[in-house]
Write a structure and sequence with these properties.
With about 150 residues, the chain is an alpha+beta fold. Helix content is about 40%, strand content about 30%. Strands 5, 6, 7, 8 and 9 form a five-stranded mixed beta sheet that branches. α3 links the parallel β5 and β6. The protein is rod-shaped, with a radius of gyration of 29 Å.
Length: about 150
């Protein structure tokens, strides 16, 4: 026994063989839509058209989904105030456009001993961008780079 639905017909419960014969007489296919329902739900439709519509919906859903773009800004532990402001303006523009910003402080040579300066730079950067975005993660050290990601506010 299955529940049979279709275009221009009232949902009815009938024997599986009867449903197959009805679909065959209409020149259509019997497609199981919900096998876990009690009784299972079948639909009398043209199967190729059904597959085409499913692909079309999937493609449309994919097109409407937002793609996350991460823009990168690199600082150094001794970045000057003017350069800092310049890079801050770029970050503001990226966040307004809806992109994430990955800010990293790159330590060259022995400058790795100034980890505190790098962390201070990143926290200052995040604080200046508070009205445009919020930090996703606190500054973390990966090799010779200290990273922080800032996501735009919705």
């Amino acid at each position: 026994m299955v529940r049979v639905v279709g275009d221009g017909m009232e949902p009815t419960i009938m024997n599986t063989k009867e449903a197959l014969i009805k679909a065959y007489n209409d020149g259509l296919d019997l497609v199981m839509i919900s096998p876990t329902a009690n009784p299972p739900v079948c639909k009398i439709i043209e199967y190729q058209k059904y597959l085409y519509e499913q692909k079309k919906k999937e493609k449309e859903r994919k097109a409407n989904s937002t793609k996350v773009v991460i823009k990168e800004i690199r600082l150094s532990p001794q970045t000057d105030e003017h350069d800092f402001e310049f890079k801050l303006n770029h970050a503001k523009r990226f966040l307004k456009d809806g992109n994430k910003v990955k800010v990293d402080v790159f330590f060259r040579g022995r400058s790795i001993v100034y980890k505190e300066q790098g962390e201070t730079q990143l926290l200052k950067f995040a604080e200046a961008l508070m009205e445009f975005g919020k930090p996703e993660s606190m500054p973390r050290l990966e090799g010779k780079r200290m990273l922080m990601i800032i996501a735009p506010k919705k």
